[in-house]
């Protein structure tokens, strides 16, 4: 094991929603360039875990470190840290009142203070990279779900993030649009982006991830390489889960 | 209201069947007859009591009458416009304070909002008219009517804006925060612009209320449409006639405001109905 500082590290993280213990003693570390996939039945806490990493969800106890530094609690430091970690949501969440181009340039211009022409040039390059440059001057509602999600990825990339969080990025998509989004993600993984991906796409998990983390009932039940996990799951919970999604 | 979008009413509308169509025709015919009878009765009463006599209407032929009405009309517009503008700004500030997350500030904003929303504007006018001068604060009749009307409206508008802000999907805020915008910038750049579009219809109806509220200007003797109407009535002894004309003017102003809102709703262009707006799980 290299002794390099992990990009994301969670130590003994706990979180409750009222009586519900949604995250139980979570320990997880993600190294630079690693692609970690979180899978598990719905309600297992995987989305919540993902959202705690940029503090869209707070935690009750434990520690979250970003490149060895504790996650800031508020203010400019928190905003700064969020700017360095991209996030892609299940429901895209493109800014509904802004054009596609403005969606992508907003972060660089407001947060990084990039000049307008530079921000727009970069945005167009990113939009071309995810294949939606022709839509640059439309508003989000005029795009298909798959296109919107690719724009959302471009919007995150425009901030030059250290790591990207994907919270079920294909779950709200029509089946024929899932692949166009996954392909962009595969490409990112190949380029060495550090990624945490909550997903139900098992093929993606198997093909792209370095590590699969299986969660159930707020706990990490097991983790391992995709081959280990999919071919020889250790826990009964994981076996049951894999059987149920394979449909036999 | 606007014809080119599918409104909730259109969406819930069901094509009527033959029985319903017949019933609709019958109800329409009966209503028309009732309205005609009603109007006929009113006109007849007016005729019998001599309200239609030329002497009650002839002064409308004098330019000075119309000049006087126009003066009042301008007064009304001036008060309504300034009060509306103050109320908009104050309403947004109160809403921002209330949703700021800073507890004491939010509490103060809430008390102010509820106070102005709950107190009748006439009472506020009395405060400015009768109470303030006792403490040596002298303001003109214009501000004595404009300020209370603005304050009363600001309370309501603060709530309208808050409803608008709450109607913007949570995901918009999360996305803005996740690219590193501060909560303040998120509100100004992302949430507020969308909230404003959502509340345009409510804003307009509140503007109509402001126009109607200005009619109590006679309390402070400010020469608005209503006050000048009262003077005309005394001078010409023609109550029904003057109020009839004035009512039409008020309807016209508010009709114009409504048309303006439809125009603005069309112009603000971008369709912002997103496909998946809420976060499941």
Describe the structure.
The complex is a heterodimer of chains A (248) and B (281). By secondary structure, chain A is an alpha/beta fold. Chain A contains 9 helices and 10 strands. In chain A, the strands form 2 sheets. A 6-stranded mixed sheet of chain A has the order 6-7-8-3-9-10, sandwiched between helices. A 4-stranded antiparallel sheet of chain A has the order 2-1-4-5, covered by helices on one side. In chain A, a hairpin with a 2-residue loop joins strand 1 (8-17) and strand 2. Chain B has 281 residues and is an all-alpha fold. Chain B is 76% helix and 0% strand. Chain B has 11 helices and no strands. The two termini of chain B are 36 Å apart. Residues 270-281 of chain B have low confidence and may be disordered. The chains are: A alpha/beta (248), B mainly alpha (281). The interface between A and B is medium-sized, with 40 and 30 residues.
Q: What attributes characterize this protein structure?
A:
heterodimer, A: about 250 residues, alpha/beta, six-stranded mixed β-sheet, about 25% strand, globular, B: mainly alpha, MetI-like fold, 2 domains, about 75% helix
């Amino acid at each position: 094991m290299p002794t390099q500082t992990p990009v994301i590290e969670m130590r003994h993280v706990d979180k409750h929603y009222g009586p519900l213990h949604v995250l139980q003693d979570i320990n997880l570390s993600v190294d630079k360039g690693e692609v970690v996939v979180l899978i598990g039945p719905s309600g297992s806490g995987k989305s919540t875990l993902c959202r705690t990493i940029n503090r869209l969800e707070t935690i009750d106890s434990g520690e979250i470190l970003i490149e060895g530094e504790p996650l800031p609690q508020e203010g400019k430091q928190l905003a700064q840290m969020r700017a360095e970690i991209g996030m892609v949501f299940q429901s895209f969440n493109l800014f509904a009142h802004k054009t596609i181009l403005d969606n992508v340039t907003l972060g660089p211009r407001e947060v990084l203070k990039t000049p307008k022409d530079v921000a727009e040039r970069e945005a167009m390059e990113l939009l071309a990279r995810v294949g939606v440059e022709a839509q640059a001057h439309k508003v989000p509602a005029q795009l298909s779900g798959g296109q919107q999600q690719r724009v959302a990825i471009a919007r995150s990339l425009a901030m030059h993030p250290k790591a990207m969080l994907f919270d079920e990025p294909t779950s709200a998509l029509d089946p024929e649009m899932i692949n166009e989004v996954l392909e962009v993600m595969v490409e990112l993984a190949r380029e060495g982006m550090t990624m945490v991906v909550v997903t139900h796409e098992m093929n993606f998990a198997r093909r792209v991830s370095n590590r699969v983390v299986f969660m159930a009932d707020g706990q990490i039940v097991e983790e391992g390489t995709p081959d280990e996990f999919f071919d020889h799951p250790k826990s009964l919970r994981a076996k049951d889960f894999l059987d149920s999604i394979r449909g036999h | 209201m606007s014809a080119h979008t599918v409104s909730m009413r259109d969406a819930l509308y069901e094509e009527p069947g033959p029985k319903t169509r017949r019933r609709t025709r019958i109800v329409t015919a009966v209503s028309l007859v009732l309205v005609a009878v009603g109007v006929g009765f009113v006109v007849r009463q007016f005729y019998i009591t001599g309200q239609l006599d030329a002497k009650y209407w002839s002064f409308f032929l004098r330019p000075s009458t119309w000049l006087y009405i126009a003066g009042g009309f301008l007064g009304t517009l001036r008060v309504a416009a300034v009060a509306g503008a103050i109320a908009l700004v104050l309403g947004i500030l109160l809403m921002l304070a209330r949703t700021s997350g800073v507890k004491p500030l939010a509490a103060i904003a809430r008390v102010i909002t509820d106070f102005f929303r709950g107190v009748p504007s006439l009472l506020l006018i009395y405060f400015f008219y009768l109470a303030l001068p006792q403490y040596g604060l002298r303001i003109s009749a214009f501000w004595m009517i404009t300020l209370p009307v603005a304050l009363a409206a600001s309370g309501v508008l603060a709530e309208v804006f808050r409803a608008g802000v709450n109607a913007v999907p949570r995901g918009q805020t999360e996305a803005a925060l996740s690219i590193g915008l501060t909560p303040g910038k998120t509100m100004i750049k992302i949430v507020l612009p969308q909230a404003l579009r959502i509340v345009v219809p409510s804003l307009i109806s509140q503007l109509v209320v402001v126009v109607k509220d200005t009619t109590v200007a006679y309390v402070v003797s400010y020469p608005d449409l209503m006050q000048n109407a009262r003077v005309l009535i005394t001078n010409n002894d023609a109550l029904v006639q003057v109020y009839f004309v004035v009512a039409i003017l008020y309807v016209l102003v508010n009709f114009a405001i409504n048309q303006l809102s439809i125009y603005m709703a069309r112009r603000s262009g971008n369709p912002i109905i997103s496909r998946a707006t809420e976060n499941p799980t």
